[in-house]
Amino acid sequence: MDALDIQIVRAMGIRPYERRPKDPDALKPGRIAEIVGVTPETVKARLARMESLGVIAGYKVVPNLRHLRRAGEAHWFEIPDDHRKDPAIAEIAATEGLLEVHDFLGKGLCVDFTFRDEKDREEKLARLAKNIGDEQPLKFYDREMPPVDRELTHLDWCILRALRWNAKRSLDEVAAEIGVTGRTVRRHYDRMAQEGSFFPVPLFNPSKAEGLFVFELQFFLEPGSPHDALRGIVKAYNGNHVYAYIPSSAELGNFDLTVFAKSTAEVEELRRMGAALPGVERTEAWFFRGLHDYSGWIDGEVDARVEASAP
Is residue 131 part of a domain? Predict the structure, then answer.
């Protein structure tokens, strides 16, 4: 991979569950080309290459968790014995409502999960802590999503199901499968997109990236750091970050960017640069060993809503 590949990935947006609605055309080569400043043919060729390498394993649509009556958050765990890491990942894989596990070199795991209410949250967090062996995990962030102002219709859920694991699928093909007109599907799709009811994203696996170091740069903030410090961090790394999610406040005391570098020397340069920024107490570079997607349970939730909303 090179810097252009990273720009293309960044233009698509690798994470679902954003605070604001996402551009429904975010995965289209023409739209990506406009943002990056190359031709659509170049984007198509680069995407095909990343797909063949496994850096991009596909494209999916993720419904707004609020439509599933859920909230979500992510926590950082340190496993006491890194030889126990693989068995621990296998144990926590059965956690109901699990989304992702980011496996970093060494003892670190970032676990992203959902919950229905506070009781469910506390029980899951306690179970994860016990299975992993870290009773005091560090909270990364809450999943902040657009508010839900209406219930999705039967047709809405049918469209989401049809696009679930093929977000780049033609809407005319979706319409033929469902048995309605392409214009009807387009109208429902655009409305859901404007409302933030779903997020189209690539299945991005940074552990497969060759030629660049793609890693998480973790910032630990000084007590009382203002929210502007977060925006200053993102601005400082504008040419090097793959993904940035700015929390609504700095009160958690930590903040991370997905960053790329050409060498281990540049990794250290970027880390040191961050440590010198206003409001930052220290920085750490975390390298991916693997990324595990456990969000398949969402398929069952979508199926259930398709059935429940049927006329």
Answer: yes
Q: Please, what is the angle between helix 3-12 and helix 40-53, to 10°?
A: 100
Domain hosting residue 97, numbered range: 66-144
DSSP strands (E only) in 152-294: 198-204, 213-221, 241-244, 254-261, 280-293
276 domain-assigned: yes
Contact assessment for residue 128 and residue 111, using Cβ atoms and an 8 Å cutoff: yes
Evaluate if residue 286 carries a pLDDT over 90.
yes
Pairwise CA distance, residues 195 & 190, whole Å: 9
For the chain, give me the number of helices (H) and strands (E)?
11, 10
What is the distance of C-alpha 156 from the center of its chain? 23
Residue 144 DSSP label: -
Write the DSSP string, 154-188: HHHHHHHHHHTT-TT--HHHHHHHHTS-HHHHHHH
Condensed to tens digits (0 to 9), the pLDDT of residues 127-176 reads 999 999 999 999 988 988 999 999 999 999 999 999 999 999 999 999 99
CA distance 177 to 171: 10
